[in-house]
Specification:
The structure holds two protein chains of two kinds.
Chain A lengths: L6 E5 L3 H12 L3 E5 L14 E2 L4 E2 H14 L3 E4 L2 E9 L2 E8 L14 H5 L6 E2 L8 E2 L2 E2 L11 E2 L5 H5 L5 H5 L12 E7 L1 E4 L3 E3 L16 E3 H8 L18 E8 L15 H15 L4 E6 L9 H10 L2 E5 L4 E4 L4 E7 L4 E7 L1 E6 L1 E3 L3 H8 L24 E3 L9 H24 L1
Chain B lengths: L1 H9 L6 H4 L11 H9 L17 H5 L6 H15 L4 H13 L31 E4 L2 H5 L5 H12 L16 H6 L2 H17 L4 E4 L2 H10 L6 E4 H11 L11 E5 L12 H8 L5 E4 L28 H11 L4 E4 L2 H13 L3 E4 H8 L1
Parallel strand pairs in B: 1-2, 2-3, 4-5, 4-6, 6-7
Helix pairs in contact in B: 1-5, 3-5, 8-16, 12-13, 14-15
The chains are: A alpha/beta, B alpha/beta.
Chain lengths: 434, 364
């Protein structure tokens, strides 16, 4: 069947959205991919490696990202969002706001001269690196970003925010790509169906004061540690803390998951395995590292996961059954107070770095998105789905994939992206038949 | 509450978070996680164990399943109280409270004796316009070391131009420790008696001296409609608004110890610090374990009224050693129990413990 006159909107450019978009596009459907950030790639592109194979995350994902950029059936809109929606028959009339990038996408060659010249260079906390590194006000979030183009951060650019700057970037740009008159665009488009892939946020453990996040140096979240390990991260892949290589690592599981105190009774499904992965990365890069992992129970449910867990143990990561009560300041180190339940002993373990296996939360923008589209959410704010058709939302013709509907690892997200794409095609085909 | 905790304890996943943050686990035979497990199975629990708990509340605040372990411990104690199998000193404290409305068994007629130390009259709360009550409670009313606290706070409130009254001999123990010893019946009696007075005299606001009393009055007396604050909240506000200031100077290095019932359990961390920072010359230091991770002094949960075996190192001693390492000359606390427990090891090691109001009186 020819679907070339059909349009689908995919909201979110992470691995779930990318999977759905590529599958729909391969069937000839015209896809508009809306990404709120400056690049597609989502959370997965922030990861150093993926479990249980320890494959390089970027190496797996960036070919797919490039495919999105090159596919004639996919129109990628970055720094864009939905403003409103009205139903039109089986389809949707959607208001889209493309925010200005202030850099002409056709002229920019991504040479980077602008960022080198920017007066804010090295002064703006870098979101992609979980605020650990600093960038300029004109930037590309990471080397493999798609679109492979620079953009201006309007909040931090002195000229955009205050109207006052010598605009060294403009002088540096050889192609004249920078355009401060860019006002973005707002328009309406018709779509036959919508796939949502809003992704997730990581739990902010600041409220768990007993763990010292935000108050004790050396206490980081899982995603921060991911950036610290990554070659595109703030330390270019060397595991460093204040320029020094830590030797003693303590990983704490279930931070903000299965936890009534933080309002999330669910298991985040990825933390057990990403912690095992972190332990493997540490062992590989710092041979003499001491590695401790506190757990309640290890949930190694996927293919190859339990084997991976065992390998992690064989490689010398000490699993401690018991969640630490407190992380406190020691003599030039951190002290983790924990009951080692299997031996019945209370231990005070010295560590240089404590990594909190922070759980997942619905992405903050999911609420607004769902309000615009009249989509129901569950008690936690994840999108409500049908039990046997896990991409089906309460709104006819709108489907969801990935973490938007609840915690999923990469393989599950990819599978759900495919499921959403096929349900979407089914919906379109039904419309075409009637 | 009992039914709720009974169900809650069944949802305990034995994660060990409670023991990891417990001020008693490790050094004593007390293992709060194990007690939860045994409670699930209704197994026998050695009678001395529940009495180690200091009711610091860390386990209950942090438990991911909201099992409220410290409340389960209170239930275990309640059973022992019912059977009469409790340490003699505690038995005595309960009897005293029943008869004299204070755990030390001092005469109720002497409850307002501290007022004699003032050079001005404090009216009965019924005679005040604001119906603002300074709730003194037992240790401050009777203990020679702590009697100075109400005297100081009364002077400070007066200096700040705040009207307040007292209940005098009509005041009964707040019952905070009594409930934690496991005598909920006696707690309810005290609560009823106090609430009766509050209603009779139209009390609108209560300023508590001890964080323990504040906790009971604020969180365990039900929905009274009465605003309950700790005196440090009042003083911090006066200082911020400019109605209270300190002309003197206090050139000392002071380290502030967060009481569990003020800090962890009621989130009052900044007010005492703001007050100390307003004292000219005072240099404020912090413990390595401060605010939410402040180490319990072991004075709560009935531990004020009896001694557990002393073979274990006291947390107060750990605290004093840390204070010394940090270069402190004075340990300040805003809780009478903390003052009492910290003072012994501090004196031994040449440090001074002061209740916050004592520092303020030196500069007023």
């Amino acid at each position: 069947m020819d679907h070339s006159d059909k349009n689908v909107l995919v909201v979110g450019g992470g691995i779930g959205g990318i999977t759905a978009a590529l599958e729909l596009a391969s069937c000839g459907i015209k896809v508009t991919m809306l990404e709120s950030g400056p690049s597609i790639g989502g959370r997965m592109i922030q990861l150093d490696k993926t479990f249980p194979t320890l494959d390089c995350s970027t190496c797996t994902l960036s070919p797919k990202m490039v495919e999105v950029a090159l596919n004639h059936n996919i129109d990628l809109m970055s720094v864009s969002q939905i403003t409103h929606m009205t139903r039109k028959g089986p389809g949707f009339l959607v208001g889209i706001k493309k925010n200005p990038r202030y850099v002409d996408q056709d002229k920019c060659t991504a040479c980077g001269s602008c960022a080198e010249a920017c007066v804010m260079k090295g002064r703006v906390p870098h979101e992609f690196n979980m605020l650990l590194g600093k960038r300029a006000a004109i930037y590309i979030p990471f080397p493999q970003a798609i679109p492979q183009k620079y953009l201006v951060d309007p909040e931090r650019c002195l000229f955009v925010s205050r109207g006052k700057c010598k605009k060294a970037c403009m002088d540096a740009c050889e192609t004249g790509a920078i355009n401060f008159d860019d006002t973005g665009e707002e328009f309406e488009m018709y779509f036959d169906s919508i796939v949502l892939a809003p992704g997730f946020d990581v739990y902010d453990p600041t409220e768990k004061q007993e763990l010292g996040y935000g108050t004790l140096p050396g206490v980081v979240t899982g995603l921060e540690f991911e950036r610290i390990c990554s070659v595109t991260g703030p330390t270019a892949g060397d595991i460093l803390l204040d320029g020094k290589e830590p030797k003693r690592f303590y990983f704490i599981q279930c931070v903000g998951s299965r936890d009534r105190q933080s309002g999330a009774r669910y298991c985040s499904r990825v933390c057990c395995m990403y912690t095992a992965k972190h332990a493997c990365i540490v062992r590989e890069r710092i041979k003499d590292a001491e590695i401790y992992i506190s757990y309640i129970d290890v949930r190694a449910y996927g293919k190859g996961y339990d084997e991976f867990y065992k390998t992690t143990q064989e490689n010398g990561a000490l699993y401690i059954r018991g969640i630490p009560g407190e992380v406190v300041e020691g003599d030039g180190c951190l002290i983790v107070r924990v009951e080692d339940m299997l031996s019945g002993e209370m231990r005070e373990i010295e560590a240089d770095m404590v990594v909190l296996a922070t759980g997942v939360r619905p992405r903050k923008t999911t609420g607004v998105l769902c309000d615009i589209l009249s989509i129901d959410r569950d008690e936690y704010g994840f999108i409500k789905v049908d039990a046997v058709t896990p991409s089906l939302t309460n709104a006819d013709g709108i489907f969801v994939c990935g973490m938007g509907s609840g915690p999923k690892d990469v393989p599950d997200t990819v599978a759900s992206g495919g499921e959403a794409a096929s349900r979407c095609m089914e919906y379109i085909a039904k419309g075409a038949g009637s | 509450m009992p039914e709720q905790t009974a169900t809650r304890v069944l949802t305990c996943i034995q994660c060990g978070k409670c023991t990891g943050g417990c001020p008693e686990s490790g050094k004593t035979p007390f293992n709060v996680r194990m007690l939860m497990r045994k409670t699930q199975f209704k197994s026998d629990i050695e009678e001395s164990l529940p009495w180690y708990c200091t009711s610091c509340g860390a386990c209950t605040i942090r438990c991911p399943r909201d099992v409220k372990p410290s409340e389960v411990v209170i239930e275990l104690r309640a059973k022992l109280v019912e059977d009469g199998d409790i340490p003699l000193a505690l038995q005595k404290a309960l009897e005293n409270t029943f008869v004299q409305k204070n755990p030390w068994g001092r005469s109720r007629n002497k409850r307002a004796d501290w007022l004699e130390k003032l050079d001005f009259e404090v009216p009965h709360v019924s005679g005040t316009e604001s119906k603002r009550l300074l709730f003194v409670c037992c240790i401050q009313a009777y203990d020679p070391r702590c009697m100075v606290i109400p005297v100081n706070v009364a002077r400070l409130l007066k200096a700040g131009g705040m009207e307040f009254g007292v209940l005098g001999e009509e005041e009964a123990c707040c019952g905070n420790e009594i409930r934690r010893i496991g005598e909920s019946g006696l707690f309810e009696e005290l609560q009823e008696e106090n609430l009766g007075s509050f209603t009779e005299y139209g009390v609108q606001e209560i300023i508590a001296l001890s964080p323990h009393c504040m906790n009971a009055l604020k969180k365990e007396y039900g929905d009274t409609g009465i605003k309950v604050v700790h005196y440090t909240e009042v003083l911090a506000k006066m200082i911020a608004e400019g109605s209270l200031s300190f002309p003197g100077s206090f050139e000392k290095k002071v380290i502030y110890h967060d009481p569990c019932f003020l800090g962890k359990q009621n989130g009052i961390f900044d007010e005492p610090r703001a007050i100390l920072k307003a004292v000219p010359g005072l240099e404020l230091l912090e413990f390595s374990r401060s605010r939410e991770t402040s180490l319990c002094c072991e004075g709560g949960g009935g531990r004020m009224f009896f001694e557990v075996e002393s073979v274990y190192q006291r947390n107060a001693e750990v605290r004093v050693i840390d204070a010394g390492k940090r270069g402190a000359e004075i340990i300040a606390a805003a809780c009478p129990f903390c003052v009492m427990t910290l003072e012994d090891p501090a004196t031994e090691k040449g440090l001074v413990v002061k209740e916050l109001s004592e520092i303020l009186m030196e500069v007023l």
